[in-house]
């Protein structure tokens, strides 16, 4: 990537004054993500930022972490920067492991904003009816459960610590309390067959879920599962099998009234995940907690910096006079919110990113987005990329939008590559 400024910020120095301001261009975050980096045990395939600590150590670490996170929420909330938050997502890790601490965090956030969608991730082994009721009362609207599969052998093969029965019970509790209910399911698991994958989906469909996400297993380097595979001790199905599972999911879920609105996401009418859509449509979002990511356009970030609450722009990482436009993305590196990895995208790079993200969704790249893109990317290049996508069968043009095809989703990297090439 060209013109990318990558800055590792190691200390916070709130600027006393910032010599530039865009006033009315200031856009506050529309989405808020809180990251909870704790799990009861590490799944064999997991390379996410989550710690599995024992008993007292875990309790003490969760207490410390939640105190620091609550303090960050207060800092941003008191400055009015959560005023326009429309969606909140508490993910992990395993947020449900926090128990009553999770309810307190929800109440804390609710004290500063009134989101239309408030999601908490949960895992079956740490979910109870009592917790469900407390979360509902605190203002959570949606629960996303990590089910992955309902086959006992497959659960064991990937190191999940819950059983199929626990998953079914958790779903029943979530539904009984009246949440919008989403489940994550995985395909391409060791020992999985098309029949067993179909059985998991079939059972889930009988439970009248509102939303299902289907992800292929990624063998991440350095994980226990990748090592087992390297040693020849387990066999992981290949990409063709994963593609067959994804096709079966389309067939079964759309047949049951779900709409596929993103490459991995299926929703009943009116049940699309608004928070994830915010990510895919370039809305500004704030991430708090270790490993949480956020994204803003530069004028907004600069204005927030003026307010003195956005430590990812310290005086050291300040765009000074050079970077007045484009987009800033950051990832928090520590528990307390003082270290950040910050990345700057030029306006053209940000637009190429928007085009790529739009191609994750069934709506594709609409004319409005293409018109905005044409203001930053030479029209000839834009047209050539779209034509190449259609010519190679990665997308179709329906007169109103460039829509990813079945091949485009299977060969996502090719389609994304074509669009990202427009960044420079
Ligand atoms: S529950 Fe999720 S975050 Fe925790 S170890 Fe398993 S995959 Fe990783």
From TrEMBL:
Its main location: cytoplasm. GO terms for biological process: porphyrin-containing compound biosynthetic process. Gene3D superfamilies: Aldolase class I. GO terms for molecular function: 4 iron, 4 sulfur cluster binding; coproporphyrinogen oxidase activity; metal ion binding. It is found in: Cytoplasm. Coiled coil: none annotated. Pfam families: Radical_SAM. One of its GO terms (cellular component) is cytoplasm. Keywords: 4Fe-4S, Chaperone, Cytoplasm, Heme, Iron, Iron-sulfur, Metal-binding, S-adenosyl-L-methionine. Signal peptide: none annotated. It comes from the Bacteria. InterPro entries: Aldolase_TIM, Coproporphyrinogen-III_oxidase, Elp3/MiaA/NifB-like_rSAM, HemW-like, rSAM, rSAM_sf. Residues 24-256 form the Radical SAM core domain. The keyword S-adenosyl-L-methionine applies. Belongs to the anaerobic coproporphyrinogen-III oxidase family. HemW subfamily. NCBIfam families: hemN_rel. Probably acts as a heme chaperone, transferring heme to an unknown acceptor. Binds one molecule of heme per monomer, possibly covalently. Binds 1 [4Fe-4S] cluster. The cluster is coordinated with 3 cysteines and an exchangeable S-adenosyl-L-methionine. This is Heme chaperone HemW. It comes from Collinsella intestinalis.
């Amino acid at each position: 990537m060209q013109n990318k400024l990558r800055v590792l910020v190691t200390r916070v120095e709130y600027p006393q004054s910032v010599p530039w301001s865009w006033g009315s261009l200031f856009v506050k975050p529309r989405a808020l993500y809180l990251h909870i980096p704790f799990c009861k045990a590490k799944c064999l395939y997991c390379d996410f930022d989550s710690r599995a600590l024992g008993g007292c150590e875990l309790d003490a670490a969760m207490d410390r972490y939640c105190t620091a996170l609550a303090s960050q929420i207060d800092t941003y909330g008191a400055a009015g920067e959560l005023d326009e938050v429309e969606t909140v997502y508490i993910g992990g890790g395993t947020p449900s492991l926090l128990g009553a601490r999770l309810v307190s965090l929800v109440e804390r956030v609710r004290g500063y904003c009134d989101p239309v969608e408030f999601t908490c991730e949960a895992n079956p082994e740490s979910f109870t009816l009592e917790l469900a009721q407390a979360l509902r009362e605190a203002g959570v609207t949606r629960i996303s459960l990590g089910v992955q599969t309902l086959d006992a052998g497959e659960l064991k093969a990937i190191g999940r610590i819950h059983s199929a029965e626990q998953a079914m019970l958790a779903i029943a509790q979530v539904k009984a309390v009246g949440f919008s209910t989403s489940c994550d399911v995985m395909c391409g698991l060791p020992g999985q067959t098309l029949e067993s994958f179909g059985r998991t989906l079939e059972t889930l469909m009988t439970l009248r879920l509102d939303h299902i996400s289907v992800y292929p297993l990624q063998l991440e380097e350095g994980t226990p599962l990748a090592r087992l595979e390297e040693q020849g001790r387990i066999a992981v199905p290949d990409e063709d099998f994963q593609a067959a599972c994804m096709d079966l999911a389309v067939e079964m879920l759309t047949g049951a009234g779900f709409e596929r609105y993103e490459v991995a996401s299926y929703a009943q009418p009116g049940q699309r995940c608004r928070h994830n859509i915010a990510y895919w449509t370039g809305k500004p979002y704030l991430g708090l907690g270790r490993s949480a990511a956020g994204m803003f356009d530069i004028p907004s970030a600069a204005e927030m910096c003026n307010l003195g609450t956005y430590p990812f722009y310290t005086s050291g990482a300040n765009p000074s006079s050079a970077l007045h436009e484009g987009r800033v993305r950051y990832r928090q590196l520590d528990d307390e919110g003082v270290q950040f990895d910050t990345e700057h995208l030029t306006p053209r790079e940000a637009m190429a990113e928007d085009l790529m993200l739009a191609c994750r969704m069934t709506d594709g790249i609409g004319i409005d987005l293409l018109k905005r893109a044409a203001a930053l990317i030479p029209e000839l290049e834009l047209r050539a990329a779209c034509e190449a996508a259609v010519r190679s069968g990665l997308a179709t043009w329906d007169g109103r939008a460039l829509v990813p095809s079945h091949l485009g989703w299977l060969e996502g990297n090719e389609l994304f590559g074509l669009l990202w090439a427009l960044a420079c």
